[in-house]
Amino acid sequence: MTPPTPLVQNAPPAPHHDGSPLHVSTQAPALGETVRVRLRVPESFGPLSWVGTRSNPNREPRFDEASVVGAADGWQWWQAAVEVENPVHGYRWLLVGADGRQHWLNQLGLSTVETRDHDDFRLVAHEPAPEWAASSVMYQVFPDRFAKSDVAPFDRLREQGELPGWAIAADWGDPVDPVYPGRSKQLFGGDLDGVREQLDHLASLGVDLLYLTPVFPARSNHRYDATTFDLVDPLLGGDEALVRLVEAAHARGIRVIGDLTSNHSGDAHEWFRAAQADAEAPEREFYFFHPSTGSGSTEGYESWLGVPSLPKFDWSSAELRRRFIEGPDSVVARFLGAPFHLDGWRIDVANMTGRLGSADLNESVRRTIRRTMLEAKPDTLLLGESTNDAASDFQGDAWHGAMTYTPFTRPLWSWLLEPGSPAGGGLGFALQRVPTFTGGDFHAAHARFAAGFPWRTRLATMNALDTHDTPRFATHARPGSLPAALGLAVTLPGIPVVWAGDEFGLTGVDGEASRTPMPWGSESSPEVAPVLETYRQLLRLRREHPVLATGGIRWLAVGDDAVAFVRESAEESVLVFAARSAATLEFEAASLAGADAAAPVYGQARLEASDSRVTLSADGPAFAVWSVGGVRAPRW
């Protein structure tokens, strides 16, 4: 099998386009609007007889010719006008040389053969994500394991012998039990007031977006098996604790999003219990019962991956939609409004929602959720979990971004983990093993899966080293690779994510083992302090360099052990170099104007620039950033 051809060192500058403001005149076009798009072509590319875009409106190709609108720093800028004829309007560039040869440019790069519509650039006329999304730094909290306040209900109920019958009580310093029933029933007693009391920690990291896994009552520590969506779990402090948390977070400039299970409820949910008790109950149509299943049966229904405690929703039910996702009285809308004021939702198992056999209502469900959010509180974020190739569902019609592992997490692990590392569960690696990648493989995999998303979807997609469902990155990371891993999460397009505890250097071989109670009080220890400082310094880059949120990206050089790219805007460019071991990368000076005057921002790697070449090097694992002048481009 022939592997994909990676970007290589010493390659000359190539024509470039992306969805950033340097290249697209508007980030949120209306249907029918004409958008100006620009292509940069290096002078070294040679003479061109025709340049323009090839769109595919209504599945019929259309070509729009471009003209030169300026030149600077060895680049020609070509501009074409593209009418947005469909809500998702794909286009690619065609460059015809003086010799008649064709070159096509799409999100995967330059090709001498015709390319697929699937990898086109896209203009999206659906409502965009809130402006704050792309600049966010996200922190994920699993409430039971994050922090326990002095008034935590757990302690009082435990003392009185009134904990729920399913709960297995644990002290904060106890080890996590990885075996069922402890795996899902062990309860440490973290609460939402405990989260509120640690908001200063989040602020010190530079976090401004808090993602809470479910807070509804359930019969497990993870709470993805909700028993109701009408209230916050009293074990977490109830509705009032969530109100206090959100108010305190907002006062610090931190937004808060919740977690909803649109694919299933718990088998103790009031709706499911009503459906089981009476075949004529309206809730019966909320779930997929087999035809032979009568009233009172505990078998004969569809569930998430065959887990009986998680019965699957049937979204053909209009009443289910009314109660859960549609209109001002729905669960989706209620927690966005007073008194809770959540700033959005992460939707669990979004990829499977509404899908079973021949039924596929996923598009209808996700669009309904987004419409309800726009009506209830327009400035909110909607993220969907889709752990594998998510592109087909994430074209901008509903989900603003993805919680996915294909564009970033799996390629990153494959490049920066020790060879032969086990994968544990949750990440979706084939056969539970992490393949070993070169830097070229990392770039190729990242580019391939990112190419399926519209640009603005990429900006709101989560760049997670790990999550509550996965092993922790640090468990099998190559020595010294943390700055490169976190640095790439911060500097590549997308929302950098910190899973609570990563900044303490915690490890875990699978998702359950990674749900370790936070070791508060260890922040100044020799083991934790350097890791914590690395997180603070790297996350700070997002605040100090806005180009990392919305700027374009050009890859400059890739080797087995290092990669380099630049994030670009008219105001500033940021050069990024990541290495897993001693490495040297080179690229032509014409690829990056101003490299000879680049100012160091982070890291200890070396930059040497001459009139013809730029060299980046490090003596071991490294992550480095330099600030370069903004791109000189024609004004719109």
Question: Can you walk me through this structure?
Answer:
- The protein folds into 4 domains: 33-124, Sandwich (Immunoglobulin-like); 137-265 and 306-544, TIM Barrel (Alpha-Beta Barrel), CATH 3.20.20.80; 266-305, no CATH class; 547-629, Sandwich (Immunoglobulin-like).
- With 636 residues, the chain is of the alpha/beta class.
- The strands form 7 sheets. The protein has an 8-stranded parallel sheet with strand order 19-18-15-14-13-10-21-20. Strands 2, 3, 6, 7, 8 and 9 form a 6-stranded antiparallel sheet that branches. It has a 5-stranded antiparallel sheet with strand order 22-23-24-29-26.
- 52% of the residues are buried.
- Strand 23 (562-568) and strand 24 form a beta hairpin.
- Mean pLDDT is 96; it is low at 1-6 and 294-298.
- The chain starts with 33 loop residues before the first strand and ends in a 7-residue tail after the last strand.
- Helix 11 packs antiparallel against helix 12 and helix 14 runs parallel beside helix 15 (529-544).
- It is 21% helix and 24% strand.
